[in-house]
Amino acid sequence: MKADIWACTPTGREPFDPQRFASQLAGCLLCGRPIKVVGMYIPQTPEAEAMVLRLRRHAPYPTTMPCLGYGLCKKHWKADRETTAAQVEGVFRRTAATVTVQ
User: How confident is the prediction along the chain (102 residues), in pLDDT tens digits per residue?
Assistant: First the structure.
C-alpha cells in the first residue's frame, strides 16, 4: 500500500511534488549548495512534533502528520545517514528555539 504525501498550502492541500518543492528552496539545509534530493523530517516524539508545529506556516489537517520538507546537496545526501539526520534535526531545533508563538 502506497501512502500519499500531501503538502499544505494557503489554499488547502495538494499532492507533494518534490521537484516543485526543491525549486522553492535556496539550497541545501546544511550548507547552501544546490539541492540534489528532498527529504521529509517526520517527528518521532511529542517533543519533536511540538518543534515541527512551531516551524510550520500552516496548521496540519486533523488526519495528517505534521512534518517538514528540506533539501540536501549531493555531499550531505551521500554522507552517513544518521549523522545527516542528526544535523537536520539540529537545524530545526535551533530554529524552533528562536520562534515566538503569539
Answer: 455 677 766 677 778 888 888 888 999 999 999 999 999 898 889 999 889 888 887 677 777 778 888 999 999 999 999 999 999 999 999 999 998 766
Helix axes 81-98, 46-55, angle to 10 degrees: 60
For residue 19 the three cell numbers come to 521537484
Give residue 92's identity as a one-letter amino acid code. F
The span from the CA of 35 to the CA of 84, in Å, is 14
pTM: 0.79
CA distance 52 to 17: 20
